[in-house]
Design a protein that fits this description.
By secondary structure, the protein is an alpha+beta fold. Helices cover about 20% and strands about 20% of the residues. The protein has a 4-stranded mixed β-sheet with strand order 3-4-5-6, with no helix packed on it. A two-stranded antiparallel sheet has the order 1-2.
Length: about 80
């Protein structure tokens, strides 16, 4: 499921109110994505999990924003040069 295809089916959990089980997954992914918008730290502390092409990270050691370029992952600066 991608973040742009939210589920619309509901189910009952533990006999309680109807709740969209798929919404839990979708909201969890959205929360993870939103949490990375302000992600920052040193070069040594760059994320190694939940990476995708285009994920950004403010590297405080370098003093600027970097992005994941490919599935390797290769981190690059704004000019596309590996860092």
């Amino acid at each position: 499921m991608s973040i742009d295809s939210a589920p619309f089916t509901a189910s009952v959990i533990d006999g309680g109110e109807p709740f969209a089980n798929g919404w839990v997954v979708w909201i969890t992914k959205l929360q993870m994505l939103a949490g990375t918008l302000s992600d920052s730290g040193t070069t040594a502390n760059r994320p190694t999990k939940n990476l995708w092409i285009g994920r950004r990270y403010f590297d405080t050691t370098l003093g600027y924003m970097i992005w994941v370029k490919d599935s390797t992952p290769t981190w690059v600066n704004g000019a596309g040069i590996g860092v």
